[in-house]
Write a structure and sequence with these properties.
mainly alpha; globular; 220 residues
Length: 220
């Protein structure tokens, strides 16, 4: 292996985009656990489409084509979001029509709730301030759809970091709070598109929690 190949391999392994890739793989695994009646078409077809789009996004990133990487990544998240939304609708129908066994219903609701957090964390990471590539080009993160606490630190403060940029974990924390507290907690939302996405995420989370609560009450 050449020196350039070794450097490229190390750079790829340390790429901050890998947590987002792992999130997509986790969503795929969660979707695989759903019963066939809740999935959008045959499960293997849906997962195959996700796999193709994920590989395409990775290839475009490695090749240094941020525009095609952004487009393929956006298409990937759109397909995943459609699948999760479809499954949630079928889950609600399964509850009302009593089509699913109680254990399967609860397991599916939990899987969709976790997938919902990961999907919207990926959306925020993908869309904020022009996307990960545009954020990487800047020296620090000073503006975007979300006002992170680090952006409000005064210079000279012990916690201030002039080179700070949000990573995937920051958007995951934001998405988790939105799904649990139905609010962004410590991160004000500045952009209209972000407010719309957070409302959609909260509605999906609330619907899933309502399904779990309804089933629990029915059991009692």
């Amino acid at each position: 292996m050449t020196t350039d190949s070794k450097h490229a391999g190390r750079a790829l392994r340390s790429d901050p985009r890998w947590p987002a890739v792992l999130a997509v793989l986790a969503i795929t695994a969660l979707y695989w656990t759903l019963p066939e009646s809740l999935t959008l078409g045959p499960t293997w077809v849906f997962l195959a489409v996700i796999g193709v789009l994920l590989v395409a996004a990775l290839v475009f990133h490695i090749k240094g084509n941020p525009k095609l990487n952004f487009l393929s990544g956006t298409a990937l998240l759109s397909v995943i979001t459609a699948g999760v939304a479809w499954s949630l609708g079928e889950l609600v129908n399964g509850l009302l029509q009593k089509l699913l066994p109680p254990r399967e219903l609860l397991r599916s609701a939990l899987a969709l709730w976790i997938a919902n957090v990961l999907v919207f964390a990926s959306w925020y990471w993908r869309m904020d301030a022009g996307g990960p590539h545009a954020r990487d080009l800047r020296r620090s993160h000073t503006e975007g759809a979300f006002l992170f606490p680090q952006m409000t630190m005064q210079p000279g403060s012990p916690l201030a970091d002039s080179n700070w940029k949000p990573g995937f974990i920051d958007y995951l924390f934001l998405a988790f709070n939105t799904s649990t507290a139905f609010s962004p907690t410590d991160v004000p939302v500045l952009s209209r598109w972000a407010k719309v996405l957070m409302m959609v995420q909260s509605c999906i989370s609330l619907s899933t929690i309502a399904i779990l609560a309804a089933r629990a009450i029915n059991i009692l």
